[in-house]
Every structure is written in C-alpha cells, then in structure tokens.
Amino acid sequence: ALPWFAGCPAATPGAGDPTQSGGTKRIVFLINIPDPYWEANLQGLNEGAKMFDLASAGLSVTQDPGNGTTEGQIEKLRQYATQDDIVGVAISPWDADSPAIVEELQKLQKKGVKVITVDNDVNREKYRDSRSFYLGTDNLIAGQALGTGLNAVLDAKGVKSGNFVQFVGNTESDNARARMDGVKDKIGADFVEVAREADGSDTGRAKDNVRNTLLNHKDIVALVGIWAYNAPAITGVLQETNNTGKIVVGTFDAQELAIEAMAKKEIDVMVVQNPFDMGVQTVRLMKAMIQDDQATIKEMFPKQGEPDGDMYTTGLRIVVPDESSPIKKELYEEGVVEFMTLAQFREWLTKFGLKSS
Amino acid sequence: MQPIIQIRSITKTYPGVVALKDVSLDILPGELHAICGENGAGKSTLMKILSGVVGSYEGELHVGGKLVQFGGTRAAEEAGISIIHQELNLVEQLSAAANIFLGRELRTSLGFRDDRAMEQAAEHLFRELECNIGAKQPVSELRVGDQQLIEIAKALSLSSEILIMDEPTSALTESEVERLYRVIARLRARGVTILYISHKMDEVFRLSDRITILRDGRTVQTLVTKETNAQQITQLMVGREIAALDLGTERTPGEVVLQVEKLRLPWPGHARQWRLKDISFELRQGEILGIAGLMGAGRTELLECLFGAAHDPVQGTIRLHGKVQQFAHPIEACEAGIAMVTEDRKRLGIFAEMNVGQNISLCQLKEATTAGLVSSQREEAMSQSMLQSLAVKTAGLVARITSLSGGNQQKCIIGRWLLTKPTVLLLDDPTRGVDVGAKAELYRLMDRLCREGLAIIITSSELPELLTVSDRILVLSEGRQTAMFSRAEATEHRILEAATKGYAEAAQAN
Amino acid sequence: MSAPSGRMLAWWPFPLTETAIFLAIVLVYLVTGALDPNHTYFNAWDASAKMILRNAALLGIVALGASVVIIVGGIDLSSGSMIAFSATTCALIMMFFTQPEVQASGRIAMDTGLVTVSGLGIFLAMVGAVLSGLMVGTLHTWMVTSIRLPPFVATLATLVGLRSFARGMCLFLTKQYWGSETEKITVNTPFFGWLRENNVWISSVVFLVLALVTWVILSRTVLGRHIYAIGGNEEAARLSGIRTENVKWFAYCFSGLCSAIAGIFLMADNSTVQPALMAQGFELNAIASAVVGGCSLQGGIGTVLGTALGALFLRVVIDAVAKLIKAGADVYQGMIVGIIVVVAVTSTQFSTISHSSRQFFPGWRGIWAIPTISLAAGMCVMMGSANIQFAKDRLLLVGIIVTLVSLAILSFIKLLESHRAK
Amino acid sequence: MSAPSGRMLAWWPFPLTETAIFLAIVLVYLVTGALDPNHTYFNAWDASAKMILRNAALLGIVALGASVVIIVGGIDLSSGSMIAFSATTCALIMMFFTQPEVQASGRIAMDTGLVTVSGLGIFLAMVGAVLSGLMVGTLHTWMVTSIRLPPFVATLATLVGLRSFARGMCLFLTKQYWGSETEKITVNTPFFGWLRENNVWISSVVFLVLALVTWVILSRTVLGRHIYAIGGNEEAARLSGIRTENVKWFAYCFSGLCSAIAGIFLMADNSTVQPALMAQGFELNAIASAVVGGCSLQGGIGTVLGTALGALFLRVVIDAVAKLIKAGADVYQGMIVGIIVVVAVTSTQFSTISHSSRQFFPGWRGIWAIPTISLAAGMCVMMGSANIQFAKDRLLLVGIIVTLVSLAILSFIKLLESHRAK
Ligand SMILES: Nc1ncnc2c1ncn2[C@@H]1O[C@H](COP(=O)(O)OP(=O)(O)OP(=O)(O)O)[C@@H](O)[C@H]1O
Ligand SMILES: Nc1ncnc2c1ncn2[C@@H]1O[C@H](COP(=O)(O)OP(=O)(O)OP(=O)(O)O)[C@@H](O)[C@H]1O
Ligand SMILES: [Mg+2]
Ligand SMILES: [Mg+2]
To answer: 3-state class of C121 per DSSP?
Structure first.
C-alpha cells in the first residue's frame, strides 16, 4: 500500500545521501542552524548535483545541519578533518569572528580540502584567507535593502517618525546582526530601534515577544522579522490584536506562511535571498575547485585577485505584494537586487519546485 | 483435630542466605502458637510466606485443608490470614483511619472514597483497643507506641480468623501491652487463631498454648507450653547451654566521670515545652547506670543530649571529668571521650554499603592514616582486633555487614565505638530485637568493659534486663526524672510505678 | 496530605501554601501594574490576562502531570521532549493524510511540508499524539517497575532520547514520503488555525477540566489515596496489598498524556513543528511549578490547587518582568524561575527552620556563603536597575550599596547566631 | 562500596562493571572501524583518538564532579550552566584588562567583543573562573544544608538561574565598559590560542590529574570514606561524628570547580563565549557518564574509574555513530545516550533481576509495554538502516521484520513468565 518506501533513493539521486561514500568523495555543506531557509538550499544542492553530474565525477554532496552554536560547528569541522573522503567543505559560519572556526577551516585547507563560505562570510578584515571564495549575498546589503523598502512604505503612509523593533532567534548570530544593522542603517534616521528581541528559536516565545512589544512600547510603526519564523509570528499576533495594516511589517526569507501572509497583504515587503541558487552555485564551484577547472572559476570570479574579487553574489530579491506597493525598482541600483511582485516570485518558486526561499 | 494451617517442608532461599530450610509445622484452629528463635532464625520470613508477602518458595502450604499459593497479601487476607509486621509499615502523611483501611478503602455508592465511614470504623476499633487516638490525626504526629497500636487495629479490622503478630509489643508501653493482652483474650474467645512471635519469654509463656522453635531456618521442635520452661526454650533456640548470669557483683565504682545538673531540652511548639526537664545525676568510673522509662519517655533524647546529637540547644550543665562541656556535634563528644551506640541499628547504626571492616573502623580511621592517606593494613589490623576481642561471628572483614545477624551487627557497632577508647559509653536499647544468646554475650561484654574502667549508661525497654546489668537505675517519665534506685532498692514494681508517674495527664495531652 | 505548615494560623480555613501563592500573584500583578510606566496591567488588562493565561494554561497542563508523578514519589524529566515527540507524531500522521490534490499541486506543497489534511486525518493524528503520550508513560513505568531504574535515570534517558528520536523520525518519514527530508513541518490546516485563534480559551478550559479531574482523582478516589500512600511509604503501601506498579503506571501515563495534549496545543500555537527546538526545558518549569506549589520531591505531599497556582505564579512573574524590563526580558527568565523556586520552597519550610535552633550560617561554611550571596544580590539588583527607569545612572553605587547592605545584614545574623550558640 | 555484582565471577581480579565498560569501548571501536567504509578508526586512528579524547576529557572532568556529588547522595544539575557561567566570568574579567588601544580600534572590535589582554589579566581571569565555581558550590551547600532544599531543587534553581545570570552579567558589564552591549565575547589571546592548539593534551592531562586526585581522595583518605558513609546513611554518619555539612561542602565545591575548569577549556576551544548557548545539557551527559560508570543515585556507590570509563564510552559511541552516519549524526546523539544509559544500568542490575523471580512483563502493564518497545526498536532500526549502506532499500521490510521479531521474542518471554507464575 506504501510504494513510496522502496522508492526513496529514486527521489533524490546520490545527492543528500551520505552513504554513497564507498569510493566517492564527498562535498559537505555545513549550515549554521536547521531552518527551512536551508531546505531550499538542499534542493539547490540536489539540483546542482544533477546539473553538473557529480556522480560521474565520483563526487557527492551532503548538507550537514549545525545546531546553532559555535561549539556545534567546530565539532563538525573537526569531525570532517578526521574523515578522508571529504574533499570539499562549504560552510555558513555561525560566527564570523571565531578564531576557532577559522583555524579549523585553515587546517582543512592544509589537508587539501577545498573550503568556501556561503551566505555568511568570515570576518574579511582578519580571516579572508581561511576560505577560497564566498558565495551569497552579504546580509548587511540584504538588511539595507529591507531598510530602504520599509522607509519607502513608511513614507508612503505619511509616517515621518516612530519606533521599530526587530525580532530574531539570537541577536549574536552574525547573519542576524548584519541584517539588523543593515535595516537600521537605511530605514531612516527618524525611526528609532527601541529593541532587538531574541526568542532562542522558540516559536512560542517569538510570538510573546511581539505581544509584549505591542504592549510595552508606544508609537510602534514597524516590525521587522529577521529569521524565517519571525514573519508568521509577527503577522499572527498583529491579526490577533487587530493591528494588521496599522503597523508596517518587513521580513526576511520567504517562509511559506509568510508568503500566504503577504498574499493577504499582512507583510509589506520581504527580502529573499537565494539559498537555492547558493546550493547550485556551491556545487558548481566546488566541482570546479576539486577538478581544478580554472575556466569555470574564472567565469564565476572574473575579478579574481582584485579586492572582493573572491566574492560571488547570488541574487537578492525584494518581494512586494503587487504593483500598487510604494516600493519601486528605481530605489535599488541594478545588479545587486532583483525586484519582484509576489505573483512573479511564486512563479519562480514553482519553476524550481520550491515552497520557500 | 484438623490443623487450620499445614506447612509442609517449606524452603526459602535468598541470594547468599538460606532463610528457611525444610520447615514443617501444624497450627491448630483457635490456638495461640508462639514462634521462637534467634535473630535470623527465619521467623519473619515464615510469617511473610504465610501472609503472602513472600510469593516464591519451595514446599507446600495448606490453609483450612486446601493447598494455597498466595500471589500477594490480598490473596492471604481473602484466605483469612492477616499479619502485624515486625517493622512499622505506616504512611506518615496519612491519617490514622486512612492507614487502617489502606488498600481496602470503603467506597460510596458512586465509587468515590468514603472517608467518613472509614473514620467512624477506625474510632470504633480504637475504642475496642482502649486507646484514644484521633482517627483524623496524621500518623506522623503520633507516638511510636500509638503507631504500633494502629498496626494492630489495622490487622483487627480485617476480622480474619488467623492473625499473625510478629513482635507486636516491641514498641508498646507496659500499660499498652496489658491492653493488647486483653484484646488478644477477646480474640481468642472469638476463636481466632493467633501466631505470636516474640523474644520476650514472659510474654510467650503467659500467652501461648504451644511453642515452636526455629533455629537457622529449621524447625527444631514444637512444645506444649505447660510442659516446658524458659531454660529449655532458650537452650533449644541457641542450641547450647546458656550459663546463668551473675553480673554486677563486686564491681567497685571509681571516681565521678560524668556529672549532669538540671539538664533541660526544650521542645519548641509542643504543649509539653520540655522533652527533658531538670535531669541531674552523676556517673562513676566502672559503673553501669540504667535508664528506665516507657516508650517516648525521653531516654534517647537524654543520651543524645549527653552526646551532643540533640537537635535543639541543651540547657543545664554537663561536667566530664569535672570540666564543663557544651557539645554542639557528636564529634566533639567523641573527642571528649564519650561514645554512643544508637538505638535502631538498621536506621542509625550500620552502613549497608560498607563491609564489616569499614563499619568498624569508621570512627577511628584517622588513626590509620599516614600523611593523610589511609593505610589499609593498619585499618584491617584495627578492625581485626575488635572482631577478636568481641568475638564477632562473621565470614571476615570483607563480608557485607548486612549478612551478619542482629546481635553481631550490634557487636560491630559497639566495636566501632570502643576503638575510640571512650571513658563513657552510652548504649541506647542495645538489645532490642537481639536474641537471648546474643543478649547474654552483650551483658558479659558490658560487665567486662565496666571492670576495665569504662563508665556505661544503658537504656532498655525491658526492665529485667536493666535489673540484671545496672548498678543504679534512673527512671524517666514524660521527660522528667522521677526516681533513682540503687541496685538493692530496685524492683520491677517500684520502677514501673515511677515510670508511669504523671503518665495519665500526658495521655490526656495527646 | 496538607503541608505541615497547616498547624500555625489554624484559624485560617484554607491551606496556607496555596493562600500565600495566591496573595503573591495578586501582589505581583498590582505592583507591576503600578510600577510599569505604561500601566499595561491596568490599561490593557484583558490583553495581558490573555497572554498570561495562554502560557499558564499550557504550563499548568504539563505541571499537573509532573505533580502527580512527584506525589507518587517519582520524577518525570521527559515532559519537554515528550511535547516535541507528540507534536511530531501528530504532524507526521497528518502528513500521511495530505490529500492527493495537494500533492498533485507540484512538489512544492510537500517540500517544506505544508500540511492540509482531511478531518479524519486530523482526528487520527490527535489520537496518535495522545497514544504516543500513553506509550511513553508505559515505557517509563516498565523501566521503573520492571528494570527497577530510578525514575530520574529512566526519564533522563527519555529526556535526551525522545527528542532526537522525534527528529530522526521526522527526517526519515518526510524523506520517505516527500522525497526531501526536513526537520520542520508546517501545520496549517483550518482546524489548527481555528485552534490557534481561540487557543487562550480552549487551552484554559482544557486545563481547568484536567485540573478538576486530577483533583477528584487525588482527593476523592481510592486511586488518589493510593498515590499519596505510595509516595509516602512505598513498602507500607505494597504490604497493604496496593498494586504499586499499576498506580505508578497511571501516574506516568497521566504525565505522558498531559505532555501530549500540551504538545498538540503548542503545535497549533506555533503552526510549525520542529522537534529540535520545541519546548526545550519545559520539564524544568513544570517541575518548578509543582515544587513552588508545595509538592515535595520525597513524594506523598502536594495538591492540584497548589500546582496550578504555582504554574500561574511563575508565568505571572515572568510576564511582569517583561512588562517592567521593556526590552530583552527573556534574558532574565531563568534567573526569575530559579529565585522563585528557592524562595518558595524556603518559605514553606521557614516555620520549621525558625523553630529549630539550626543556624543559617554555621561555621566557616557560613562565613563563605555570606559574601557569595551578597555579591549575587548586588549583581542582580545592579542588572535590574540598569533596565528600570529610576536609578538608571549611578548604577555602580546602587550595586555596591546593595552588596554592602546585604553583607552587613547577613553578617549581623551570623553574629547573632554564633552568639546564641555560646 | 564495590557494586554488588562483585560477587559473581569472583575469580576475576578487577571490578566487573569497569571491565565490562572497557570491553564495550574496545568492541565499539573495532566494529565501527570495520563497518565504516573509510575505516577511519584504522586509517586515521590518531586523528580519531584526538577527536574522542578532546571530548571525553572535557566530559570526564565534569563527570568527576558529578560523580562525587552523586556518591555523597546529592545531585548536581547545574554543571552546564556552571560551565557557561565560569567561562563568562573569565571572559568578563579579561575584558577589564583589555588595553585601551584595542578598545579605541573602532566599533567592530567592541561590537563582537574582541579581547586581547595582558598576562596578569589572563591569570586573574582564570582565578576568577575557578573562584566562581567554588562560590556556586558554596551556594549549593548553603541551600542544601542550611535551608534544607533537596539537592535536586537547589541545583535545578541554579541550572535555570546561572545561565541567565551569566547572560545578564555579560550584557550589563559589556554595556558599562564598552558602551555597546553584547551577549557574545570573542576571546582571542595568544595564550588561549595556544591552549586551543594543544587542547587535547592539556585537557587530557588535567583530566587524568583530577581523576587521580579524586581517586586518592575517595579511596585513600578519611574524607573519601566519609563521603561514601554519608551517601550510604546520612543520619548514621552524623551520629558517628562526621561533620556531614562540611563533607557536602567539599563535594559541591569540587563539582563546581570541575565545571569551572571545563568552562575555561571550552572557552579556549570555542574562542568565543556565548552564555546563552554554551554547554547546554552538559550536565545530562555528565550525570549519564557517572550512572553508566556504576554510580547509584541513592548515593554511597560509585568509583572514579567507572565514571571515567563511562564518559569515554559515551563519547566513543557518539563519535562512532558520527563515523558511520556521515551527515547529521548529531540528530541521533540523544537517542544513543539514552539507550546507553538504560542498557548500562540494566546490565549492572541484571544479576539481581534474573535471580529474583520478578517478571519483566507482568500483567496488563507488560502486555502494553511489549508493543511499545517493539515499535520503538523497529523505528530505530529503520532509521538506522536508512543511513547505512546495506539494506537501504526495502526499508519498510526491515522495519516490519524487526518490529515483528522483537514482538515475537518479547511475547515469548511474557508467555514463559506467565506460565512460570502458574
Ligand atoms: N529480603 C531479604 N533478602 C535477603 N535476605 C533476607 C531477606 N529477608 C530475610 N533475609 C535473611 O533471612 C534470614 C531470616 O530472616 P528473618 O527476618 O526471618 O529472621 P527473624 O527470625 O525474623 O529475625 P528477627 O528475630 O531479628 O526478626 C536472615 O538471615 C536474613 O538475613
Ligand atoms: N524527632 C522528633 N520529633 C518529634 N518528637 C520526637 C522526636 N523524637 C522523639 N520525639 C518524642 O520525644 C519523646 C521522647 O522520644 P524518645 O525516642 O527519646 O523516647 P525514648 O524514651 O527514647 O523511647 P525509646 O527509646 O524506647 O524509643 C517521645 O514523646 C517522642 O515521641
Ligand atoms: Mg523477624
Ligand atoms: Mg529511644
């Protein structure tokens, strides 16, 4: 009655499947904390594995979940160092400044393992050499993009000043910090960030934080959801307190409930990075590095050698409910940001068989 | 006459121990059958089998002619057998009534618990036992004696035709014992069969029709009470002749070692403000001072005060060798040369996890250290010496203390304290639950120590014992010193009189 | 069954512990309402009440189970993991009932596990969740009674085991059923949406019903009497012919059941299930509530009312602090719980302590304890004042003063004691 | 003091529990080395050993403390939080010794709290960390002996309290000293860099030294004997003239000290201190190690060697699974620990169980327990096989077979028992 049981290997050929490591070498993608955000990335990895035919190159790619702590990632990296079938490591560091993580990366490089950073980079001033390349979109830029958007919406609503609060799982994780700083930079000088509320990835507490914020702070004009689950937490509470539409909401990462919420116009602007593409590009780059395929590398990093030539920017999307939104393409300079309405965005998702991003 | 209980070659083994070996026994309906035996003879084990507490054994058990194999106490009760256990088995948080009906609660028609009915029934039982315990009273607030009475009431409430009593009087005051006897008489009039276990010969001979002796888990013999006497019984129990004791003769007390004046122990938040009130006495070297008193008279407290183990600050003066002492912790008393063997071995004496050697050496371990490290040779030497001088029966130093019989455990604990070379030895009820053989040895031991110049204070719940061993006897009643007899003056009657002085008011008090 | 403190203030008709907690709750609420510059507790009392109720009810449900196990003389450390486990079970069962058309509408729906599901599915899912609770309860009982593991060890094992079991199960089954593994399932059915909407009322009602049932069982039935008896003196209970194992079976299953129910509510509330992160450390708060409510870990003592009030008290104080400290209150939650537990248990024992002549700071131990406590106090106050309007500046002063004052007070007590000991 | 199992196999010179664990460790290592397609344990045995040692040493240090407290009859739930607390203290003290120019160098440095610091600072910081451990130990003793809180409650309070206290302290002090508050401090001094480099050796040595000291204390000194005595029978110990409170003081302080030391190593290892996330649930693994090593939670039983081996065993198995399951092994870590604990404790008690006529699956309870256990077993195996080469396809088959087989076996046992009971 359950044919799907036997059919599991077919569903995901090779990729995401550790046990093919008989003769095959492995590429490991170490994420920072389990989150739907990274499931799109897993899709990307599998997609890339097909696209660039890893299997025939005797390679396989695996996504390895971190547990949202520095300890966790260090532990994993050490684990990799002991396993000889790992030839490539792509990591999204939990902590850009942790010398421990950096050292482990350097040790891996010494072993001849190819190392790149994805989505989050290490502290470039100090530890640039601990990875060969960086893939992704700087979270600071992403934050600034959201800030700009929020500013436009607030402006259109005729709100000139007020308070805003940012919600996140952990205020100290780098992607969160960068995003929040970015938002703060660009939302406008007259808007005061009264708090950064952390919930320790506890969805229930995330909601309580929103509730308390509404009760505690006067003149709240905007709420910002930094991590994927913060978006539905915010919209949920706004509904429950009939504040929907009264307060501007901007969020990151198109979690599926967030998409629904935006369809109901409960979210004014959504900044979506592209973990799926990160996945695909990771596979592409890793394969090239491992096989020393300079052509591909050159193609991906034309400005290699120049400052920031080791950075490959994956797309960054601004998603708005529809054309009526006050946020316009013109606000953003070309190239960095791709501007989309929800409808377009959904098309894109369906195209790649994604639900969230 | 067809026996109501037939025990056919029952054998029960525990890991390491053979508790019962091929025991056979007939109990006749309506008789009071006493079971005697040393500690560890297997009395309680046999009773536990009869009452369904111990389920697995070899051999056959017939009740009322039918072969039975009880799965649990409930099954035994249905077969008409109820038991009063040796140890108190009460839930202190619950009320007296709740404890009596525990496991057999009365229900209302709706299936809920019927507390009122149970309380009334309990009141009725207490009236039958002639004791004034409130049915609603939490057991934790009751005196030990009353708790024992609750156990008895519990067994009676089953109104079963076979009743097992495993040392029921070990915690009762003389007056309560008398009441118990009256109850037993009434039960027998009702035709109830009673199995009665006791180490107290007078009880056995006063109550029983027949006596069965167990030794090392075997039935030695069943005798008709009228046709035998205490000597024969004890002899059969121990398996050898016990020389009649003549202790205390020509012991010559030396100078005063311990002097107590107006010792008081407060009892905060209690109607009777003092656990102990104005106790004054002096103890000489080479002398045994007995402390008599009913259960709960404050004997243990008194010893605890002398030993610095009391939970409340002691008032009055204690002089040791003429020097005033104020012990805040047992260790201080210990260093000053006082040693105390506590009552209730199992709870306050032995360390079950430790072997015999470690149990003995515990208090003097420091003496066996070099540069802070314990040298095992010296420790063993220390313990070994005690084993020999006290003639402890054991497999060796590494044997588990729990594998020893009660008497030998007691010896080990006395040994533990003798190692500290005390000048004053406090013994709190050292012979409770210890069989006659062991008792005799303990008496001799005390006598010897005493002659070696030790001063001893001993409490006991058995007057004959005190009269045998002690030179003088101090009597406590409800925490007050009511008399001090010399060996010559002391008789059971006079002591009892003094001990029950003012007991009546106290009875009203609670 | 009533706490020993029942003796003093005999004229007061109600049990003292419960009364004290109740008064404390009221006090905290009023004081906070007054201190809080927005006076949220007065102006928006309904919203505040809702918020407190939502959490208190959930915590209370779990605390009920915990208290029953504690009263029977055991301990259940697995509540948090059990919640995650039951929620995961629930979500996974629903997964099997996702309608074909949903699956047809592109692999999208399945990838991150947006579940919309038939009524039957939902029903079975909830039954399954409840069953999972009972099964874990049975497992605990088996470990405790048949293998004779100490309850602490047995439930420690499930505390660490169940959560990772749930994670593994989630990864495995989603992989099998959807082809792509995920550790997070989004549950977004109309039913659970509705549940989320009316969560406050429903969970409160469920809690009250459960509390009532528990109360009846504990104080009006034979089973209840046996629970207290076993907690008080297991051997005695056994010798009285009580089937102790079966009573424990009830206790642990009840605890499992409560956690399972809480799991369903939590799932509805979060609209997502992520076993790795869900309800972490919930068991600690549950046990804390029971202890604050007067349950004794030795067993045999405790009441339903006390536990319920204990849970409410914890949540009220946590919420109150969030109202006073406007931003980042979650940092202090742990401290609050810790302090409440200590203070509560201490106060229940205070009468006995004060009666007995025991010293608070005996000997060297005491001398060391004093600076430790003072320092901690000073630090806490300093942190607190940093977040509270008045006395924000001259923090250092405040800190030092508090430290010195408490140092002085404690030393004084110490002196008194050592003097009295003379 | 040696476990009761000491009786059987009397000819064997060494304690049985320890021997068994040791053999288990060797077995696991060899089997894993063989099954693992890369045979990492053989090819890269040194790297693997390092990996295991690093973790085992850290866990072992904490487990030593935990075991001493357990032997004295208490429990210390606060280890994890204590680690976070001591590390935070250490980092914050160093912060006060950061040279001005570092602070001057732009906001970045301060934001993420980069600390480079003088030798004196480092020394004082480590002293401070150790002191914090002793202080918490003193606090525990005070709560347990003076306020008479059950150890579980007292350390539960610090378990939840200390971590958030550390967080608050970190936010507060960084704010005061750097002007911008952070919950994460990066520690990057040459000294700690060096410590991180040689962590494996240093922590192992420290662990061995600590273990040796503990062993001497427990089995060669009067204090040690007293520790066992108190764990075995506290009241009797008091009446034998043992100052029980002081002995407990030692035990809890020792536990605090061990955690504090572990905290310093962990800080060096992570090069960052983030109290909110650091060493979460560490106490559980520590207690588990002690229990696996043969410590009895009733107190009075336990050995240093056993505890050390217990810790090593846990880490080896966890690492082995990581070698077998290439990715996401940490998902299963909890399950592993849980199962090990249950199996270990069961096996130590097995002799007594088999001797006694006790049934494994008595009555209805048993009948319910059987399917529960079978189902769990089947599920586990199924998950496992999904990650392991052979039998990856036909999973369902495997699962069902395992479930049925265990169902059959258990039912058979059940039948035997109920037959024997006749
Ligand atoms: N549960 C048990 N486990 C192991 N051995 C036991 C157990 N119960 C009793 N024994 C052993 O069985 C023997 C008989 O014990 P039992 O209690 O029947 O003696 P007794 O005659 O009642 O002694 P006492 O007069 O002190 O009550 C003793 O050696 C005792 O150590
Ligand atoms: N810890 C305690 N708490 C409350 N009351 C106590 C406590 N210990 C003893 N008592 C009461 O103090 C009185 C004296 O108790 P104690 O044990 O000294 O009696 P005793 O003379 O030693 O009798 P025995 O030694 O035969 O038990 C009794 O009324 C007893 O109930
Ligand atoms: Mg007996
Ligand atoms: Mg006494």
So the answer is: helix
ipTM over 0.90: no
Give pairs for B362-368: CB < 8 Å, separation 24+.
Answer: B362/B416, B362/D225, B362/D229, B362/D240, B363/B334, B363/B416, B363/B417, B363/B419, B363/B420, B363/D240, B363/D241, B364/B416, B364/B419, B364/B420, B365/D222, B365/D225, B366/D222, B367/B419
Atom of ligand 2 nearest to the CA of B293: 21
Q: Which position has the higher pLDDT, D112 or C42?
A: C42
pLDDT 10s digits, D102-145: 443 333 333 344 555 677 888 999 999 999 999 999 999 999 99
Condensed to tens digits (0 to 9), the pLDDT of residues B395-417 reads 888 888 888 877 788 889 999 99
Rounded Cα gap, residues C376 and C350, in angstroms: 22
The two structure tokens encoding residue C65: 């189970």
Distance CA D207, CA D196 (A): 16
The C-alpha atoms of residue D89 and residue D112 are separated, in whole angstroms, by 17
Cα D278 vs. chain centroid, distance in angstroms? 14
Q: What is the DSSP string of A150-200?
A: HHHHHHHTT--SEEEEEEES-TTSHHHHHHHHHHHHHH-TTEEEEEEEE-T
- Is-contact A176 A294, C-beta < 8 A? no
Smallest CA–CA distance from A103 into chain D, residue: D197
- pLDDT for residue D209: 97
Using DSSP bridges, classify how beta strands B323-325 and B315-320 pair: parallel, antiparallel or unpaired.
antiparallel
Q: State the DSSP code for D143.
A: I
Closest C-alpha to A33, from A122, A83, A87, A95? A95
Q: What is the DSSP string of C180-232?
A: S--S-EEE--HHHHHHHHTHHHHHHHHHHHHHHHHHHHHHHSHHHHHHHHHHH
* Chain B residues inside the 8 Å CB shell of C421: 313, 328
- Tell me which ligand sits closest to the C-alpha of residue B170: 2
With CA atoms as reference, the chain C residue closest to D332 would be C164
Residues C370-402 as b/e (b if ≥16 CB within 10 A, e otherwise) read: bbbbbbbbbbbbbbbbbbeeeeeeebeebbeeb
Q: How far apart are the C-alpha atoms of A302 and D57, rounded to whole Å?
A: 48
Tokens of D185: 């401090």
Answer for the pair A78, A104: CB distance below 8 angstroms, yes or no. Answer: yes
The encoded tokens of residue C355 equal 């009666």
Q: What is the mean pLDDT of residues A301-324?
A: 86
Measured from the CB, is residue B41 less than 6 Å from ligand 1? yes
Angle at B159 between CA B155 and CA B163, to 5 degrees: 55
CB D21 within 8 A of CB D60: no
* C51 and A CB contact within 8 Å: yes
From B142, B167, B174, B275, give the residue whose CB has the most ligand 2 atoms within 8 Å, as the site to mutate.
Answer: B275
The residue assigned the tokens 């915690």 is: B171
- Chain centroid offset of residue D379 CA: 27
Query: Considering CB atoms only, which of B53, B94, B113 is closest to C222?
Result: B113
**In this structure, are residues C85 and C308 in contact, taking their beta carbons and an 8 Å threshold?**
no
Give the number of B-C residue pairs with CB atoms closer than 8 Å.
Answer: 75
Helix D119-141 to helix D190-197 angle (10° resolution) is 70
Q: Tell how far CA C26 is from the center of its chain.
A: 20
Three-state DSSP class for residue A325: coil
* Res B153 pLDDT > 80: yes
**Distance (Å, rounded) from C-alpha D246 to C-alpha D235?**
14
- Hey, what are A339's tokens? 């501007």
Average pLDDT over residues B306-317: 88
- Tell me the backbone φ, ψ of residue D185, rounded to 5 degrees: -115, 125
Type of residue numbered D113: G
Cβ(B456)–Cβ(B449) below 8 Å:
yes
Of B478, B497, B505, B508, residue with least CA distance to B174: B497
Q: Are strands B369-370 and B373-374 parallel, antiparallel or unpaired?
A: antiparallel
